[in-house]
Amino acid sequence: MNNRIELAVRPEIRRNTSKDFDVVEQPRPVWEKLWDNAYLRKSVLLLLLAALWQVYATMLNEPLLFPKCSDTLIALYHGVVDGVIPARVWFSIKLLLQGYSIGMVLAALLATFAISTRIGNDLLETLTSMFNPLPAIALLPLALIWFGLSNGSVMFVLVHSVLWPVALNMHSGFRSVSPTLRMVGRNYGLNGFSLVARILVPAAFSSILTGLKIGWAFAWRTLIAAELVFGASSGTGGLGWFIYENKNQLEIANVFAGLFSVILIGLIVEGLIFKAIERKTVRKWGMQS
Fold it and tell me: Of 15, 41, 208, 238, which cross-links 91 as Cys (Cβ 3.0–4.6 Å)?
């Protein structure tokens, strides 16, 4: 006797619950959308600082001590139109790019040697402990003795200011790469420079980029400070000499215009060039949120 147990088939019940859980999206106010723009927020802050500058300088009423923001902008405009400031900026940028490039190459060689051998690691740690705390501008008198009144003196202090922070960050990034990635590279037959170029550099590029930013900031301020001294000796120079020259002539508005140019170039390099590199590399690769 076959006992069959028949299961009752329950009709499938489907309920449309979409109406019960509709999400009503509230339109965002225009001011909230605008405030989410980081560039707009920073622009507002800059305008507030400029307004405070203008009010304080007006109340002080001492143009030889602290000119108004409007006077500085007028001096900057005339300097740009006359071609004086662009020429001085180009002179400084050329020197900076040369010294920055040499410093980066030397830093890459030193960090590669340090990550490849124990002697190299000891050498990098010893040299950075000795020279990294030494201000680059303190070497300018020695550079003037060695290289004389030439661009070589400025180049020497620029390389010094770039070399150590870039080498330190590069070496730190190389050391933070996981052993698994190193093993993968060796399994593909990579070693020495090829391992560094194809495995370590992409994996440690976030730290390398940080070192490049620090090296740029050190190099830029070192160049301006060196030109304040070196330009006074040679009679030529870039933005630093422009500032020094106008200080001697008591053209304080032009001095502030030169300082404003230094700040503006720093903002452009940091906010446009390095941000673009970061967007195309570490953020695109998912190495940074």
Answer: 238
Helix (H, G, I), strand (E, B) or coil at 16: coil
Residue labelled with tokens 């680059």? 136
Q: Give dist(CA 226, CA 219) in Å, integer.
A: 10
Taking the alpha carbons of 37, 42, 47, 48 in that order, is the dihedral positive or negative?
Answer: positive
Give residue 245's pLDDT: 86
Contacts of residue 3, defined as CB under 8 A and 6 or more positions apart, other chains included, come to none
Domains with residue ranges and CATH for the chain: 73-280 (1.10.3720.10)
**11 pLDDT tier (thresholds 50, 70, 90):** low
Torsions phi, psi for 7 (to 5 deg): -90, 130
* Helical ranges in 136-204 per DSSP H: 140-147, 151-176, 179-187, 193-195, 201-203
Residues ≥6 apart with Cβ < 8 Å to 142: none
* Reported pTM: 0.77
Mean pLDDT, residues 208-234 taken together: 81
Distance of CA 35 to the CA centre of its chain: 25
- Residue 106 pLDDT class (50, 70, 90 cuts): very high
Residue 173: closest CA among 129, 108, 97 = 108
What tens digit of pLDDT does each residue of 55-94 get? 998 998 888 888 888 888 999 999 899 888 898 889 889 8
Cβ(257)–Cβ(85) below 8 Å:
yes
Residue 285 pLDDT: 67
